[in-house]
Amino acid sequence: MKSYRKELWFNIPTRRALINITPQVREALQESGITEGLCLVNAMHITASVFINDDESGLHQDYEQWLESLAPHAPTSQYQHNRTGEDNADAHLKRQIMGREVVVAVTNGKLDFGTWEQIFYGEFDGRRRKRVLVKIIGE
Ligand code: ZN
User: Fold this and answer.
1) Which residue, among 59, 48, 50, 53, has the nearest Cα to 24 in the 3D structure?
2) Measured in angstroms, how far is the CA atom of residue 64 from the centroid of ligand 1?
3) Which of 4, 24, 53, 127 is surrounded by the fewest CB atoms within 10 Å?
């Protein structure tokens, strides 16, 4: 069995953003030389997510509104977590909802997606360097 590991680094200039990282994951798969196996992609931070959904701008706005209605950023004083001096309690909660990682099957050297599936990095507390792990195992 072969294995391949790569870190993808991001420095998002805004607090929140959704980035389609499918091209970077595809590139990692090509570098791995693996044609049959599994590809894990996970956020390496507790205030960011990796998830799969459609690359559609209306949907991305809907996520923003939905997440803000569930865990609004402001007022930051509403969260116990922020009593430590941080202001990112909402980012921890948003990450929990949107998930930590995805696993995609690798078939014939390709990411074996369902219709419209794309991989996204969800940033909920940006403006600093953060990373995503890609781990691919197989033959
Ligand atoms: Zn925090």
Assistant:
1) 50
2) 19
3) 127
